[in-house]
Specification:
The chain contains 3 helices and 6 strands; from the N terminus they run ααββαββββ. By secondary structure, it is of the alpha+beta class. It has one domain: Nuclear Transport Factor 2, Chain: A (Roll), CATH 3.10.450. A 6-stranded mixed sheet has the order 2-1-6-5-4-3.
């Protein structure tokens, strides 16, 4: 005998899948430094709190990513192989708390770099995200994304477990 489908449970699973997709789209856009996509994943008044400072609003977020493009372009080495270096971010261990049209998420992140002569990968940095999300007419968006980076004293995470 099959149990009846619980519409509330199905709705929560769909929200979790859509939030998971938001996290993934952010990382793909970050690794390709796609300023337009990253900005579109935030509300109009969204906040990105990261190593470059606290940035408010889509236009400011877009401008910051354009600045990253110039910054990372400086690291190409003239004597390196023809294959360009790559930076790839990954997210794991997600925790989500969804309440109606708002949500909080926590997730660990790490990055693989290969900006050395032979393009061998290594873990370049790691930390965690603390996010506030809102459901909009176009889906879930970041209201605030705070990025903790354990490689930087001024951005390291809290001593206490941030998961509720």
């Amino acid at each position: 005998m099959t149990e009846p489908i619980d519409p509330a449970a199905v709705a929560e699973l769909l929200d979790r899948a859509r939030i998971d997709e938001l996290h993934s789209r952010y990382l793909f856009a970050l690794d390709w430094l796609d300023a337009g996509v990253i900005a579109s994943l935030f509300t109009e008044d969204g906040v990105l709190d990261w190593a470059g400072g606290v940035i408010e609003g889509r236009d400011s977020i877009r401008a910051a990513v354009i600045g990253m493009q110039a910054h990372f372009g400086k690291f190409e080495k003239a004597d390196a192989p023809l294959r360009p270096s790559r930076l790839r971010h990954f997210v794991t261990n997600k925790v989500m708390q969804i309440e109606g049209d708002t949500a909080r998420t926590l997730a660990f992140w790490f990055e693989l770099d290969n900006d050395n002569r032979h393009r061998w990968p290594y873990v370049g940095a790691y930390g965690h995200y603390e996010d506030e999300l809102v459901r909009t007419g176009s889906g879930w968006l970041f209201k605030r994304r705070t990025i903790f980076n354990e490689m930087m004293d001024e951005r390291k995470g809290p001593a206490a477990n941030p998961a509720w």
